[in-house]
Amino acid sequence: MCLNSTMRILFTATVWWLTVGGSSPLVEGKNKEPLNNACNGTRVDQTAHVGESVSITCKYPQADKCSIRYFCRHAGNFTCTNIISAQHYNYTKLPRFSLTDDKQQGAYTVLIFTLTQEDAGKYQCALKTHNSITCLQDVFLHVL
């Protein structure tokens, strides 16, 4: 059981990336909580074809199984727009996206359905714990 649990799923939230004095980029979310977006070089490249679906797996530490899981898309100028997220539900579905969480394995999987060329780009897997968001990995999606 997770402590301090508020049942919620956040579907749209914009995360603002700020570079502070040459140090690692910091991020501020909707409620101005401090965020850490450095993925420590963790990068995944995915390739799929137009019209297909793609599966992206994001691993997280067991200690963070009560955290909110985020999947966002980089929109340029250091912004990352949340696509889909979940905290308590093992499965969340939107028209073209789904998120399935396996707390026992410490991983969540995002499916993107019916890919278009516009889906190509940089995404990020992240976790929100208390008042900070930590990047798990950068995902570069190539659509052929």
UniProtKB/TrEMBL annotation:
<keyword id="KW-0472">Membrane</keyword>
<dbReference type="InterPro" id="IPR003599">
    <property type="entry name" value="Ig_sub"/>
</dbReference>
<feature type="signal peptide">
    <location>
        <begin position="1"/>
        <end position="29"/>
    </location>
</feature>
<dbReference type="InterPro" id="IPR050671">
    <property type="entry name" value="CD300_family_receptors"/>
</dbReference>
<keyword id="KW-0325">Glycoprotein</keyword>
<keyword id="KW-0964">Secreted</keyword>
<dbReference type="InterPro" id="IPR036179">
    <property type="entry name" value="Ig-like_dom_sf"/>
</dbReference>
<keyword id="KW-1015">Disulfide bond</keyword>
<dbReference type="Pfam" id="PF07686">
    <property type="entry name" value="V-set"/>
</dbReference>
<dbReference type="InterPro" id="IPR013783">
    <property type="entry name" value="Ig-like_fold"/>
</dbReference>
<keyword id="KW-1003">Cell membrane</keyword>
<keyword id="KW-1133">Transmembrane helix</keyword>
<protein>
    <recommendedName>
        <fullName>Immunoglobulin domain-containing protein</fullName>
    </recommendedName>
</protein>
<keyword id="KW-0812">Transmembrane</keyword>
<keyword id="KW-0732">Signal</keyword>
<feature type="domain" description="Immunoglobulin">
    <location>
        <begin position="43"/>
        <end position="144"/>
    </location>
</feature>
<keyword id="KW-0393">Immunoglobulin domain</keyword>
<dbReference type="InterPro" id="IPR013106">
    <property type="entry name" value="Ig_V-set"/>
</dbReference>
